[in-house]
C-alpha cells in the first residue's frame, strides 16, 4: 500500500497510462505549466513534454471538439474541463459528436476519449462553479459517466476510462482532492459499471457516490449505535450503473435510500428508485427515499452551502423514516 491524496492518485493514473501508451495525451486550460487549477496534472509536462501535455485557449467547445477528432484519428485524449459547470459549452461535441460517432459510422469509428471535470461544493465557489451536472451526461446514449470516491477508485476508474474504446466522463468531487488514503501497489483498473459495498448491513440499503460516500458511512456508523444496520453501496459508475447489486441488496434489506449531492429533481436517485420500483417492488417494505440538494443553485455563503449539501443528519433522518 502507498498513502497518497485523491488528487495525486489521479495524477498517478495519468502518468502510468501515458507511460504505458504513447497515444495517451492530455490537454485543457492550464493543465501543462500550471498543473491544472487544483494541481492534479502537476509534473506531467516535465515528464512527457509539450507534444503530449498542452495548455489550450479558454474554449471548452474547442477542447472537446479537438478531443473528438484526436480520438477518431488514433490518439487517446484525456481532456480537462475546469469545472463541470462549463460542460454546457462542450455539449455539442460530447452529445452530438463523441456519443454518436460509433452509431453514425456504422461501428467503424470509436471515440476513446476521457473528459475529466470536477463538480460539487464545499469550497464556497458559488452557483457557477459548484454544480453537480453528471446526470445530464448519464442521460446521453453513447457516453459513460463515472465518479470515484476513494483513492483506489480515483486511480482505477481513470485507468479504466482511458482504456475504454468509448467516451467516458470522469467526474471528480473538489472536496475530495485533499483526502488521504491507500493505493494498492498492484492496483490496475476498476471495472466501469460495477458498484462496491462500502459497508454491509441488513436493515436499509443506502446507495450513494462521490463525496456523499463518506457522509453515508458516517451516518451508518451513527445508526449502528442505535441498532440499525445500514448497507452502503458506492455506485462508482453512474452510467452504466450496477442495478443488480442494488437489487440484490434491496432483496435483503427491503428498504432503500439514495443520497447524492446533485439536486433531487430528475436526478440519479430518481432513476435508481424508479428502476427498483419496476424490478424490485416486491422487496420493498417502505417507500424509497432520496436525500439530495434542494432545487436551487448552490449558494456562496458557507452557512447556506452547509444547508444545501446533504448532511449526515439528513441521511440519518431519511433512514429512520424508512424504518418508522
Give the biggest sheet: 7 strands, mixed
Give the rounded overall mean pLDDT.
Answer: 97
| Rounded Rg | 19 Å
Structural class by helix and strand composition = alpha/beta
* Cα shape: globular
Secondary-structure map:
Layout: E1 2-5, H1 6-20, E2 24-28, H2 44-48, E3 53-55, H3 60-72, E4 76-80, H4 91-98, H5 101-104, E5 114-119, H6 134-138, E6 144-146, H7 151-163, E7 168-173, E8 180-183, E9 196-199, E10 204-208, H8 212-224, E11 230-234, E12 237-239, H9 243-253, E13 256-263, H10 268-280, E14 289-293, H11 302-308, H12 312-323
Helix pairs in contact: 1-7, 3-4, 8-12, 9-10
Walk me through what this model shows.
With 324 residues, the protein is of the alpha/beta class. The protein folds into two domains: 2-183, Thiamin diphosphate (ThDP)-binding fold, Pyr/PP domains (Rossmann fold, 3-Layer(aba) Sandwich), CATH 3.40.50; 196-323, 3-Layer(aba) Sandwich (Rossmann fold), CATH 3.40.50.920. It has twelve helices and 14 strands. The protein has helices at 6-20, 44-48, 60-72, 91-98, 101-104, 134-138, 151-163, 212-224, 243-253, 268-280, 302-308, 312-323, and strands spanning 2-5, 24-28, 53-55, 76-80, 114-119, 144-146, 168-173, 180-183, 196-199, 204-208, 230-234, 237-239, 256-263, 289-293. It has a seven-stranded mixed beta sheet, with helices on both faces. Strands 9-11-10-13-14 form a five-stranded mixed beta sheet, sandwiched between helices. The chain has a two-stranded antiparallel sheet with strand order 1-8. α7 (151-163) links the parallel β6 and β7. The longest helix is centred in the N-terminal third of the chain and has 15 residues, at 6-20. The radius of gyration is 19 Å and the shape is globular. The N and C termini lie far apart (42 Å).
Amino acid at each position: 500500500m502507498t498513502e497518497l491524496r485523491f488528487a495525486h492518485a489521479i495524477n498517478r493514473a495519468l502518468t502510468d497510462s501515458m507511460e504505458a501508451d504513447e497515444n495517451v495525451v492530455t490537454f485543457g486550460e492550464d493543465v501543462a505549466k500550471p498543473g491544472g487549477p487544483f494541481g492534479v496534472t502537476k509534473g506531467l509536462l516535465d515528464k512527457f513534454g509539450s507534444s503530449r501535455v498542452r495548455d489550450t485557449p479558454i474554449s471548452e467547445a474547442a477542447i472537446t471538439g479537438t478531443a473528438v477528432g484526436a480520438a477518431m484519428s488514433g490518439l487517446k485524449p484525456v481532456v480537462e474541463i475546469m469545472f463541470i459547470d462549463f460542460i454546457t459549452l462542450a455539449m455539442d461535441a460530447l452529445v452530438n459528436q463523441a456519443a454518436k460517432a460509433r452509431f453514425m459510422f456504422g461501428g467503424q469509428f470509436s471515440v476513446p476519449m476521457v473528459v475529466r471535470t470536477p463538480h460539487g461544493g464545499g469550497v464556497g465557489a458559488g452557483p457557477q462553479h459548484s454544480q453537480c451536472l453528471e446526470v445530464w451526461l448519464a442521460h446521453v446514449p453513447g457516453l459513460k459517466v463515472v465518479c470515484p470516491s476513494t483513492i483506489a477508485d480515483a486511480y482505477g476508474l481513470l485507468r479504466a476510462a482511458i482504456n475504454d474504446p468509448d467516451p467516458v466522463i470522469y467526474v471528480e468531487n473538489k472536496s475530495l482532492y485533499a483526502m488521504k488514503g491507500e493505493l494498492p501497489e498492484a492496483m490496475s483498473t476498476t471495472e466501469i459499471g460495477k458498484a462496491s459495498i462500502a459497508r454491509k448491513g441488513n436493515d436499509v440499503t443506502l446507495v450513494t457516490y462521490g463525496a456523499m460516500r463518506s457522509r453515508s458511512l458516517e451516518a451508518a456508523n451513527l445508526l449502528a449505535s442505535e441498532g440499525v444496520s445500514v448497507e452502503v453501496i458506492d455506485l462508482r459508475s453512474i452510467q452504466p450503473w450496477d442495478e443488480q447489486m442494488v437489487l440484490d441488496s434491496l432483496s435483503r434489506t427491503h428498504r432503500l435510500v439514495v443520497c447524492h449531492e446533485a439536486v433531487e429533481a430528475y436526478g440519479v436517485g430518481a432513476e435508481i428508485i424508479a428502476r427498483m420500483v419496476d424490478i424490485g417492488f416486491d422487496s420493498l417494505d417502505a417507500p424509497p427515499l432520496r436525500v439530495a440538494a434542494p432545487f436551487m443553485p448552490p449558494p456562496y455563503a458557507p452557512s447556506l452551502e452547509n444547508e444545501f449539501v446533504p448532511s449526515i443528519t439528513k441521511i440519518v433522518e431519511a433512514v429512520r423514516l424508512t424504518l418508522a
